[in-house]
Design a protein that fits this description.
Blueprint: E1 8-12, H1 17-28, E2 32-37, H2 40-52, E3 56-61, H3 67-81, E4 86-89, H4 104-131, E5 137-140
Parallel strand pairs: 1-2, 1-4, 2-3, 4-5
Helix pairs in contact: 3-4
Length: about 150
Amino acid sequence: MNEFKNKVAVITGAASGIGRGLAVRCAQEGMKIVLADVETDALGKAECDIKKMGADVIGVVTDVSKPENLKRLALKTLSTYGTVDLLFNNAGVGAGATLWESTIKDCQWVIDVNLWGVIHGIREFIPIMLKQTTPCHVVNTASISGLR
């Protein structure tokens, strides 16, 4: 994919950090953008800020740990833009402590978002992308924890 103008990007974890940076860059490239994040207020602010840049953008509150949320995100993307060209599986969390100091609940939350969120995104969007006749790409973001 060499041309990004008018392509559709779906970005999870889009309300802050790397996700927000990706959204800004996509806006600069003239892309249509679907922002997904679990943080409602931050997502609304990001959507407003990206719109001020002149981008065609929508925000969809999404908890990537829940497969039904990814299904809803895909359906909203298709009903709004009709296609998806780039999927950024970017949502990620950290428990803020070492593994031995974290609770099982903290560990489960990290796995549900960082691992299952990516799996849910791939399972929902890849079949859509395979049916399209245009080049499509998936980018999965991982922290150093993904390498350990």
